[in-house]
Specification:
heterodimer, A: 245 residues, seven-stranded parallel sheet, 7 strands, 46% helix, 16% strand, B: 104 residues, mainly alpha, 0% strand, globular
């Protein structure tokens, strides 16, 4: 399946998760061809691709695998102009610091932070060639506020913010913007792994007193990924029902 | 998002620079001309300032510009310069020499 020629390509990692799928749908509605990057859930990727046909292409994309990352970006370039990248892939690795094994800490950093570095590094080259690009990191409210039991995840997501601001400075003159969203508590398969207390604390922290919908995060991402957001770079946009107030 | 007010998606149309993707390898004497053309068209460097001895710094290029230049060069010549090559490149002649090395 090939991209409709006039559609720029948006790469979404972790596209089968709640935020990733909602973002893919919104980006297609906004006129992109979306590369549905998935790590292990090929069936979900196939379903989403079918739903969004002909404007989506599923690609195996384990962001911890540099070869797979490079192959995915090469495939994206075959589909069209790589205009947007959404670094959404992530995983939790939660435990109290004193019980958090180094290996688990490393895996969490690798999936959430190093993976974004690898994918951004690969996608930046075609963007630099075109002197146009929109890069959006999916950080988290826990990067801004911290959350007991999420030391590794929060450190990785805070690392994404540092990466966002630094890269935004590096490529600002090249027509490439780099921004982050910091979602609050979104009900998803990933957050289902949180303890009841952790979820309740995240909801209670929001003045709106509710969880955030994946679609609400998707709309924020889609705006930052749009040409109209051309003067917005280095920003961390909370999408958190007011929790960051 | 409201489709009626959304700006057009993708790279702006006015950025219509063309970078050919032919993989022909120019003769080494053509490389200076290729660099001159790229530096002029893509980086706004006056052609009369480009010489083999000119440093990229003097031409107003920073490290990211040099990476961009090598990507454009790759499109023109098919020669891919790695990060380790770029670390040693200061002048246009340095870059020409690296391309020749890779072509050899």
């Amino acid at each position: 399946m090939s991209a409709t020629p006039e559609r720029p390509v948006a790469i979404v990692s972790g596209a089968t998760g709640a935020i990733g799928a909602a973002t893919s749908r919104t980006l297609v509605a906004d006129g992109h061809h979306v590369m549905i990057g998935y790590r292990s859930d090929a069936d979900a990727a196939a379903r989403l691709t079918t739903e969004l046909a002909p404007h989506a292409t599923a690609v195996a994309l384990d962001v911890t695998d540099a070869d797979q990352v490079d192959a995915a970006v090469a495939r994206a370039q075959e589909l069209g102009t790589v205009a947007a990248l959404v670094n959404n892939a992530g995983m939790t690795g939660d435990d109290l610091l004193l019980r958090l094994e180094p290996e688990r800490f490393d895996r969490t950093i690798e999936a959430n932070l190093r993976g974004a570095y690898l994918l951004t590094r690969a996608a930046l080259r075609p963007m630099l060639r075109a002197r146009y690009g929109r890069i959006v990191m999916v950080s988290s409210i826990v990067a801004l506020r911290g959350n007991a039991g999420q030391v590794a995840y929060a450190a990785a997501k805070a690392g994404l913010i540092g990466m966002t601001r630094s890269l935004a400075r590096e490529v600002a003159r090249k027509g490439i913007t780099v921004n982050a969203v910091a979602p609050g508590f979104v009900a998803s398969a990933m957050t289902a792994e949180l303890s009841e207390e952790a979820r309740a604390a995240l909801v209670a922290a929001a003045p709106m007193g509710r969880a955030v919908l994946a679609e609400e995060v998707a709309h924020a991402i889609a705006h930052l990924a749009s040409p109209g957001a051309s003067a917005i770079t280095g920003v961390v946009l909370p999408v958190d029902a007011g929790a960051a107030i | 998002m409201d489709d009626t007010t959304a700006p057009p998606i993708g790279p702006p149309d006015h950025d219509n620079r063309t970078r050919t993707k032919d993989k022909e390898h120019p003769m080494s004497e053509d490389l200076l001309a290729t660099f001159t053309e790229l530096l002029t068209s893509d980086f706004g460097v006056p052609a009369d300032e480009v010489s083999a001895d000119a440093t990229f710094e003097a031409l107003g290029l920073d490290s990211l510009d040099i990476v961009e230049l090598t990507l454009a060069l790759e499109d023109r010549t098919g020669v891919k310069l790695g990060d380790e090559d770029l670390e040693q490149v200061r002048t246009v002649q340095d870059a020409i020499d690296k391309v020749k090395e890779r072509q050899a």
